TrEMBL record, chain A:
<feature type="binding site" description="covalent">
    <location>
        <position position="125"/>
    </location>
    <ligand>
        <name>heme c 1</name>
    </ligand>
</feature>
<feature type="region of interest" description="Disordered">
    <location>
        <begin position="288"/>
        <end position="309"/>
    </location>
</feature>
<feature type="binding site" description="covalent">
    <location>
        <position position="219"/>
    </location>
    <ligand>
        <name>heme c 2</name>
    </ligand>
</feature>
<keyword id="KW-0560">Oxidoreductase</keyword>
<dbReference type="GO" id="GO:0005506">
    <property type="term" value="F:iron ion binding"/>
</dbReference>
<dbReference type="GO" id="GO:0016491">
    <property type="term" value="F:oxidoreductase activity"/>
</dbReference>
<keyword id="KW-0406">Ion transport</keyword>
<feature type="binding site" description="axial binding residue">
    <location>
        <position position="223"/>
    </location>
    <ligand>
        <name>heme c 2</name>
    </ligand>
</feature>
<keyword id="KW-0677">Repeat</keyword>
<keyword id="KW-0375">Hydrogen ion transport</keyword>
<feature type="transmembrane region" description="Helical">
    <location>
        <begin position="36"/>
        <end position="58"/>
    </location>
</feature>
<dbReference type="InterPro" id="IPR009056">
    <property type="entry name" value="Cyt_c-like_dom"/>
</dbReference>
<dbReference type="GO" id="GO:0020037">
    <property type="term" value="F:heme binding"/>
</dbReference>
<dbReference type="GO" id="GO:0009055">
    <property type="term" value="F:electron transfer activity"/>
</dbReference>
<keyword id="KW-0813">Transport</keyword>
<protein>
    <recommendedName>
        <fullName>Cytochrome c oxidase subunit III</fullName>
    </recommendedName>
</protein>
<keyword id="KW-0408">Iron</keyword>
Length: 309, 438
């Protein structure tokens, strides 16, 4: 490195002043940062001092400096949540004090319940029933019009609160026996009744079918003599087009032989009552919801739901 | 300048009656309600193509004018030029002409300099503030906003926008000025592409002017061009170019050099027009007859044809604008539902755009699907025969269509919505899915 402390040296090619530093013949050009950039830099440095004072900044043992404004991410979150709750509160209050019947006839509350219910559904129910409520094998499709325990709003509300075969003491409960495994029917009899059940929805199975007698003796107590099911036992209608576990011969055989005991958890105590009621309305609105007498009979004019700008 | 400024400041105050359910401001961009109004035109976000058409029309009109008359937009209408001119006018008024201003700049700080400079900047800021203030009127109802301003009850958004526009006007017109045209404006860069030899430009008649040089009064002009190299044209140029070097990218066709040169020519008793508005052809051939002014050239007709086409499309579109519109969106989750009786049900989100200014009742039906049953989901007893949509609103409904399983899946079906009073209809193609793809 050569020493050029006192004289300015101009680079021949670029015409720019050098710093005087030289490495193996390469000279460092002196291109200072633009003035405006420097000033912005100084301003940010000054700005940061104010920032340290007002906001939490320096890490210290046992936490960081607090700052005069007392700002934290937690208080920010809390405030923003409070704002949302306040906005919800206007509807929630009305919702809380309205009966199902009133909500079903009030476009605003109905839309509010559906929006809230949809969110809660995705968090809690979609795991089994699917995000669209279409269900799967063993998990009922909530969009269709077949209900094991009833599709009126009060039926759905009860199912949601107490569950099916859940650990709650008021749970809905019933049992499809394991006819084959427990020796209530022989393997041949199970096969015969399976064939009978498969023919029900297409109308092929009549009273002349050999399975008819077995069905009337063993199954009709829950599924009904006409096989149209019994909602007080959660017994499915066997004559329709909907099969919870599948309509293949093997599946039905397995159902009769081993029995089925699908389980739905209870939500009372885990979700608050307003949330449960929103969820009830949402599930009811998916398409299969059955009218309650009270809703059917009420009189109201034409309504514009969910109008937006 | 006065005309363009007047248009800018007065336009939001013009009223246009649209009935009780829509604002009566002639030009209004209503962002919260997502509507744009321009006299008889009303644009919904769904019709943003009108906006595109209007912008394309404006752009082509600009090309057209440029190819005929050169950069008159830049020199006379561009907001950048208009506000810069306004700021320069303020400077002239307070500080005097260019020479006086230069003297003032050189002076050390004294009371005269302080108040002159101070007043200039105060007036600049005032103008900038009015500019920002007028801008927000295009987005808010002007009389309402006036009341709010006078009672110091203005929303934060308005204040932020006014502040931002005040600052940018002050910066652009006060300091950046012609550098905006040279370095920031993309249009200046490609404008020359619209020029041809018959475009009116600011031109220096080099045949007449060269060889230039100082000239002593009373001596012969023999061997001398008419340009006496007084540099008046260079001094007045706001862009800081020398027009005698020919047409340049920076030239905004303001014509200040033409005026300056004519003044000089008058003083030395030579004909005006050494620097003049003219076409390249005429300057090169030294001909001034009007036959050479070639206005009706193919380019003119192309531009007029395109402009007429776009204007025609917009007018046709507006004349045939549907007073209401239907959209049907098939539910994706689930795609279809099998019902207990074996029928298939599909769900659809139905949107009815009621562009009229009165509450309207519609009925919905479906075509091309045998034995279809239409049910509406919603509060109360909502039937497909009576769907009410408020004036100027979009009604959102949910429809369930059930029908026997179809051989074809997806099957093309058509939704039809009918205005119950007028009997007019709108249709929307959708589909009916009978089998899950799984």
């Amino acid at each position: 490195m050569t020493d050029h402390h006192n004289k300015k040296e101009i680079d021949d090619i670029s015409g720019v002043e050098t710093t005087g530093h030289e490495w193996d013949g390469l000279k460092e050009l002196n291109n200072p940062a633009p003035r405006w950039w420097l000033w912005v830099f100084y301003v940010t440095v000054i700005w940061s001092v104010g920032y340290w004072v007002i906001y939490p900044a320096w890490p210290t043992p046992g936490g960081a400096t607090k700052g005069t404004s007392g700002w934290t991410q937690f208080t920010k979150l809390k405030n923003e949540q409070a704002e949302i709750f306040e906005r919800q509160g206007a509807y929630l209050n009305r919702f809380h004090n309205s009966s199902f019947e009133e909500i079903m006839n009030d476009p605003e509350l109905y839309a509010f319940a559906n929006a809230g219910g949809a969110a809660v559904f995705k968090d809690n129910c979609a795991t089994c029933h699917g995000t669209g409520g279409a269900g799967g094998k063993g998990y009922p499709n909530l969009n269709d019009d077949e209900w094991l325990w009833g599709g009126r709003i009060e039926n759905i509300y009860q199912t949601l609160q107490y569950g099916i075969r859940s650990s709650h003491e008021e749970t809905r409960v019933s049992q499809m026996p394991s006819f084959g495994r427990d020796g209530l029917l022989t393997r041949t009899q199970v096969t015969t009744v399976t064939d009978y059940v498969r023919g029900l929805s297409s109308g092929k199975s009549g009273s002349d079918h050999p399975g008819h007698a077995i069905f009337q003796e063993k199954c009709a107590s829950c599924h009904g003599p006409d096989a149209k099911g019994g909602r007080e036992f959660g017994a499915p209608n066997l004559t329709d087009a909907i099969w919870l576990y599948g309509e293949s011969k093997d599946t039905i055989f397995k159902t009769v032989y081993d029995g089925r005991a699908g389980m739905m958890p209870h939500w009372k105590g885990r979700l608050n009552d307003d949330t449960l009621r929103q969820l009830t309305i949402y599930v009811h609105s998916l398409g299969g919801g059955e009218k309650s007498e009270s809703v059917n009979d009420s009189e109201f004019g034409p309504i514009t739901p969910g109008s937006e700008q | 300048m006065a005309v363009t400024l007047a248009i800018y400041y007065m336009a939001p105050l013009i009223r246009w009656d649209r009935g009780p359910t829509a604002p009566d401001q002639a030009i209004l961009i209503d962002l919260p309600a997502r509507r744009a109004y321009w006299f008889f035109i009303e644009i919904w976000p769904q019709e943003v193509y009108y906006l595109t058409a209007i912008l394309v029309f404006s752009a082509i009109a600009l090309f057209f004018v440029t190819s005929l008359l050169g950069r008159v937009w830049c020199g006379y209408f561009c907001p950048q030029t208009v506000w810069t001119d306004l700021y320069i006018a303020v400077e002239n008024l307070v500080q005097g002409d260019r020479v006086a201003r230069q003297r003032l700049d050189k002076m050390s700080l004294c009371i005269e300099k302080a108040w002159k400079k101070g007043l200039t900047h105060f007036l600049w800021l005032l103008i900038a503030f009015c500019t920002g203030g007028a801008f927000v009127f295009y987005f808010n109802d002007a009389p309402t906003l006036w009341q709010q301003i006078l009672s110091f009850n203005v929303s934060n958004t308005v204040m932020i926008f006014v502040a931002a526009l005040t600052f940018s006007t002050y910066l652009m017109a006060g300091f950046a000025r012609e550098q905006v045209c040279t370095y920031m404006c993309p249009y200046a860069r490609f404008q020359s592409a619209m020029f041809d030899k018959d475009t009116l430009i600011i031109g220096y008649d080099s045949l007449r002017g060269e060889p230039r040089g100082k000239h002593k009064a009373g001596t012969s002009w023999e061997g001398h061009g008419h340009c006496i190299d007084c540099t008046a044209c260079v001094q007045v140029c706001p862009m800081g170019i020398d027009i005698r070097q020919g047409l340049q990218m920076e030239c905004i066709a303001c014509g200040l050099c033409v005026d300056a040169c004519n003044d000089i020519m008058d003083k030395i008793n030579l004909p005006r027009g050494l620097i003049r508005y003219d076409t390249e052809t005429r300057i090169e051939t030294c001909q001034q007859d009007s036959a050479r002014l070639h206005i009706l050239r193919p380019r003119t007709f192309y531009y007029i044809a395109v402009l007429c086409l776009i204007a025609g499309l917009v007018i046709y579109g507006q004349m045939n604008r549907k007073p209401f519109e239907l959209h049907a969106l098939h539910n994706r989750n689930p795609l279809m539902v099998r019902l207990a009786d074996g029928h298939i049900r599909n769900g659809y989100e139905i949107k009815i755009l009621n562009k009229t200014h009165e509450d309207t009742s519609f009925s919905l039906r479906v075509e091309n699907l045998q034995n279809a049953r239409v049910e509406m989901r919603g509060a109360g007893r909502l039937t497909p025969e009576n769907l009410n949509v408020q004036a100027n609103h979009v009604g959102t409904f949910h429809a369930f269509i059930s029908a026997p399983e179809q051989k074809e899946s997806p099957l093309d079906i058509i939704f039809i919505v009918k205005n119950n009073r007028a009997g007019t209809e709108d249709r929307y193609e959708s589909m009916f899915i009978s089998r899950d793809a799984r």
